[in-house]
């Protein structure tokens, strides 16, 4: 009986370690996105998204589908580095459940003339060993 309890405790310990590893991987993607955006590189920023027509972006103009649509909308809304500014994320909540994850947070842009900000909810999936955003609801 003692060995069973020890085995269960070790399983829980390793499971928690795996979750922390996955959380760290997601945070690294978001840190890279901050850097790429702040460098004015929307194409690299988009590497954090699922490159699929099923990618869903929910914003002030409703629901839009597709990686290319999302890329074009970003380019239209942020035509140059000055418009993009410096991006900062503040993660409020990050939950991992197997091959999916949920991130709730705040975004802010630091620009010369203003500092727009808002909130986001991201649904992530681990696809082909890589964490990608599959649903982005940003306001």
Notes on the structure:
The protein is α+β, with helices and mostly antiparallel strands and about 140 residues long. Helix content is about 40%, strand content about 35%. The chain has a 6-stranded mixed β-sheet, with helices on one face. The model is unreliable at about 5-15 (pLDDT under 50).
Topology:
Blueprint: H1 2-38, H2 42-45, E1 56-59, E2 62-65, H3 67-77, H4 81-84, E3 86-97, E4 100-110, E5 117-127, E6 130-138
Parallel strand pairs: 1-6
Antiparallel strand pairs: 1-2, 3-4, 4-5, 5-6
Number of helices: 4
Strand content: 35-45%
Name of the CATH class:
Alpha Beta
Flag low-confidence runs: 6-15
Approximate shape: globular
Q: What structural category do the secondary elements indicate?
A: alpha+beta
What is the share of helical residues?
40-55%
End-to-end gap: 53 Å
Largest sheet composition = 6 strands, mixed
Q: Please state the CA-atom Rg, rounded to the nearest Å.
A: 18 Å
Q: State the order of secondary-structure elements, H for helix, E for strand.
A: HHEEHHEEEE
CATH topology: Nuclear Transport Factor 2, Chain: A
Q: Walk across the major sheet and give the strand order.
A: 2-1-6-5-4-3
CATH architecture heading: Roll
Q: Mean pLDDT, as a whole number? A: 91
Number of distinct beta strands: 6
Tally of individual domains: 1
